[in-house]
Specification:
It is a single chain. By secondary structure, the chain is an alpha+beta fold. It is 18% helix and 22% strand. The longest helix has 13 residues. 42% of the residues are buried.
């Protein structure tokens, strides 16, 4: 007796609205599209997305609302045994394939028991390799969907995004279960060479693309080797203090890639002046651009007391003891500041001033705004120096612009002399962090008088580079649902501005006189 037919639940959604002109622009397909950060980016670069796929119905709904001319698949592209499986090979051909591949277990190669024999990583049987397949390699099968699509359709261009730890993909190193040897990653990358592609790996931080968030990511650009190589050198205009001039900064390694694959700006790489080769700091967008400062949150002293058990004894507190300890740590570090951002759900993490970019946003609400609750005002002194409140987004902080605060004394580190609030601030660098002294400082206040709240989903979205609605502006990005679902979607999304820059650089090669034979 034959087995019953498997019920398939993968869902195809035709485009909600027909495209006005077909094939006027080069077309693209977006694997694992999520909220559509890459879709937004490449559309800004001039590509027209014709198909997007993701396993999550909610995220497809958000993508569909913001891209009504795109067809969609709600499907598992990885596991052929899943009821909602749909092969990446069966998606339509395109000029550009983009894929934000899964970050699950890419951060560290978790070596757990091998999966049962028979699962094939690259579409070919390899018994010896199967014996050492790990859970992390199974999770990273999203990367293999890119390879499967390329083998079938051979798009002219491919763009892949992931966490930087992708390069450690492979069996764990001896006695180091958290670090892979990179063998699977190198094998995967070599397959594209066999398929006729040249490539370039880039490590880019979103904070240098007008996004108010420090977000280091791995990007892999591939192009048919019959095409000319695209210009993928990121050269942000930056101020060189030594040369006293604005220069096109040069991306430069500091230490190289460590075994765990973690690559971060300022630690593994930086930017340098092309003339004197000294380090320069490219412009960054402050977190103020993403914050709603009309909402200070709730006064800690007004929160109801709750019982906590600490070291076997009962403690009554308005907040968890660990949170109170973080507040005290922040108060000791930044006693002069009326407001700053702090990690709220972990004992680790870094506090940030409001004129620094946000820390890397994950899929959870993890950042809180701690303030005195008092009004803050700033003056912006540049060529168009109009004064504005701190509830109005500041412009991108560039080396040639100076910012002045009107609320008191501003002390600086690293031998920089303090200035009055009516005077402009010196250049903001990675080592010179400005401080604001107001009439009331955090160090002078009782903890109960602080105001604290988690960042809202629209702020998280704005911090990830999406045009969300905030009190000072009407955003164009449509999103709905529970805050945790929105934050998950934003936190897993690719920064649209980075996708736009990469897409524009890749699109240039399609408009050269050298055509594919």
């Amino acid at each position: 007796m034959s087995a019953p037919a498997k019920i398939r639940t993968a869902t195809h959604r035709p485009a909600v609205r027909r495209r006005r002109f077909r094939h006027d622009d080069p077309v693209a397909v977006d694997l694992f599209s999520g909220f559509g950060g890459l879709t937004l980016g490449i559309e800004m670069a001039g590509f027209e997305t014709i198909m997007a796929a993701n396993h999550n119905e909610y995220k497809i709904g958000v993508h569909e609302a913001n891209h009504p001319t795109v067809e969609h698949w709600i499907a598992d592209l990885v596991n052929p045994e899943a009821a909602d499986y749909h092969s990446a090979e069966d998606l339509p051909a395109a000029d550009l394939l983009v894929a934000g591949i899964s970050c699950v277990n890419h951060s560290q190669a978790n070596t757990q028991k091998a999966y049962e024999e028979g699962w094939t990583l690259f579409g070919v049987q390899d018994p010896e390799f199967e014996k050492r397949v790990t859970r992390s390699e199974r999770d990273r099968a999203t990367a293999n969907c890119v390879l499967a699509y390329v083998r079938k359709h051979h798009p002219s261009l491919v763009l892949v995004e992931c966490t930087t730890e992708l390069t450690s993909w492979g069996p764990a190193l001896p006695n180091r279960k958290s670090v892979g040897d990179g063998s699977t990653y190198r094998y995967w990358l070599s397959r594209f060479d066999i398929e006729g592609y040249d490539h370039k790996v880039l490590y880019l931080n979103s904070q240098f693309f007008g996004v108010p968030q420090s977000r280091d990511r791995y990007y892999l650009a591939l192009w048919d080797r019959r095409l000319p190589a695209p210009d993928l050198e990121h050269r942000p205009l930056s101020r060189c203090v030594a040369c006293d001039d604005d220069v096109e900064a040069v991306w430069s390694w500091k230490t190289g890639i460590p075994p765990n694959g973690t690559v971060r700006y300022g630690t593994q790489y930086n930017y340098r002046c092309p003339r004197c080769h000294r380090e320069v700091v490219p412009p960054m967008t402050p977190s103020l651009h993403a914050l709603d400062l009309t909402n200070p949150g709730t006064r800690i002293g007004d929160r109801p007391l709750k019982k906590y058990v600490v070291d076997g004894r009962e403690v009554w507190s308005p907040l968890a003891p660990a949170t109170m300890a973080r507040i005290e740590r922040c108060r000791q570090r930044f006693g002069e500041f009326p407001a700053f951002l702090m990690p709220a759900k972990s004992s680790r993490g870094s506090e940030r001033h409001l004129w620094q970019p946000l820390t890397t946003q994950t899929s959870q609400q993890e950042t809180a705004l701690l303030s005195t609750g008092s009004a803050l005002w700033a003056a912006v002194n540049n060529f168009q120096g109009a004064a504005r409140g701190l509830d109005t987004p500041l412009p991108t902080v560039v080396a040639s612009e100076t910012l002045g605060l009107m609320t008191g004394i501003i002390p600086f580190r690293k031998n920089t002399l303090p200035t009055l609030g009516t005077e402009p601030m010196p250049t903001v660098t990675s080592e010179q962090i400005p401080g604001l002294l107001t009439g009331t400082t955090l160090a002078e206040m009782a903890v109960e008088d602080f105001y604290l709240r988690m960042l809202g989903a629209p702020e998280v979205g704005a911090g990830c580079g999406f045009d969300t609605t905030l009190p000072d502006r009407e955003g164009t990005f449509k999103v709905w649902g529970a805050a945790r679902d929105q934050v998950d979607g934003f936190g897993n999304a690719v920064s649209p501005a980075v996708g736009a820059w990469l897409g524009a650089q890749l699109r240039e090669v399609l408009h050269t006189t050298e055509a594919i034979a």
